[in-house]
TrEMBL record:
Belongs to the class-I aminoacyl-tRNA synthetase family. GO terms for cellular component: cytosol. This is Cysteine--tRNA ligase. Its cofactor is Zn(2+).
Amino acid sequence: MKLYNSLTRKKEEFVPLNKDKVTIYVCGPTVYNYIHIGNARPLIVFDALRRFLKTKGYKVDYLVNFTDIDDKMIEKANEEGKTVKEIADKFIQEYTIDANNLQILEGETIHPRATENIEEIIEFIKELEQKGFAYNVNGDVYFDISKWHNYGKLSNKNIEELQSGARIGVNTEKRNPVDFALWKSKKEGEPFWKSPWGEGRPGWHIECSVMARKYLGDTIDIHAGGHDLEFPHHENEIAQSESLTGKPFANYWLHNAMINVEDIKMSKSKLNFFTVRGISKEYDLEIVRYFILSSHYRSPINFSREILEQSKNGLDRLYNGKNKLKDLLDTADKDNINIDNKVKGKIDEFKVEFEKSMEDDLNTSDALSKIFELIKYTNTNLNSDVSYGTLKYSYDVLIQLSDILGLLYKENEILDEEITLLIEKRLEARKNKDYDLADKIRDDLKEKGIILEDTKRGTKWKREM
């Protein structure tokens, strides 16, 4: 498998530190609000990476942190007259709802909070201070980037240029204008913890270095997140981690591109800010997952209602193919377990091509196209004359590939009594040539989200996506 490493600016063969296990750290949200569509992209993309690595036989230690103490958290708490912890508790719970609905493997994800690791954060900063990489100014502790000669290696930033650009409005307490805060002294009305430098709270960047080291080790296989985090956040993580341990912080850095809304950068000030929760009121979040995975993760994508509708239609086509294959399987003679080698060979080709796409820098867009090709083939070539064994093999491969992308997981639900009676009543109306009543029942069912399809084998139904 090859992954594009932001550190080297090229695709590299992925070789994990441990032949049986992969460690992945994904920068998570600041939990002061519902997650937005931009937050959803790394969650979905790197969850697909995790799923694929698992199918290759790896145990995956996968961490998504929660930033539960920073300026935005404090501001939100003050606005609502609540504690920072109350705000964090609420929006972590809301995050979990959205993540589950996006089919993120939450049960297999490590979710540490910054505030649960204050002791480790303080110890980490003390070690940096002892090594000469950090200094204290009246209770504020800064990382001295002049002592870390590799600063800028991830983002290709030049220290001299950064210092020059930072001179206006510089904090005169710093030794260098671009030194960053590891610990912030207490301000009135803010949460604080006791430390060797006085009462205060951690800076933003330090939490990720500490939690990655605590839960995954000094060096991790993959560090991932949005492209906007490459500088300064990830650059600062590298500086503080590698100066402390003397080891590489992460061997592979993966960054997804940004999402624009109708060709404009998403921001609250432009009123084009969409939360996942808000979208879920109108669209099933499987459609959002499909939308995210239908583009390569390093390509910028545009979000709009029109594109969501296109994604809805694409996902609907996949479900139609899946359901048609499942119908054939359910009615086939289960004693005929023979597998047609010609069909099996073709299905295996789709599987191999799918895996090649995923191995080529997580090309989910191309992988998704292989699922479409598989369904097109089964729609065209498989029918009621095909053996149960052949149908089951084809169906199992479809489900296996779809599961890697976290798609096509819904099953037709049992209709409740009211809808069952309406379907039977419509069938009776059609027999009596009362087509007006039959059409009315069809329309009524559509309003309830039930789509009917009259086929030679009877009336089929599906839930509207």
